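From the pipeline queue, job 12 of 40. The input is one protein chain; the requested action is below.

Action: predict structure.
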Amino acid sequence: MSVTTMERYSWRRGTLAIIWLAALPQEDGASWLARIEAAERVPHAYSVMNQTITTSGGSERTFTIRNWSAQEGDVGLMAYTEPRRVAGDRIL
């Protein structure tokens, strides 16, 4: 089995990248989690989503939901807008 010059180059490049990454200063777990939490917490948000469920009889039902959140996600409201029989149902 012959190894091409390109394969050798790719292997060397990958090895150098791993060594370079290992030499970078490592972040401790607590600060890493703090950065993740800060990135995912937003002051407020609004979204519209579709939820499709499969009933016990095998048919599918699709619901449309509007969602609002505030206080960095600590409070929220979900309101069903479709289908008509559940439109107006809300969940805090």
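Job complete. The CA atoms of residues 28 and 34 lie 10 Å apart.
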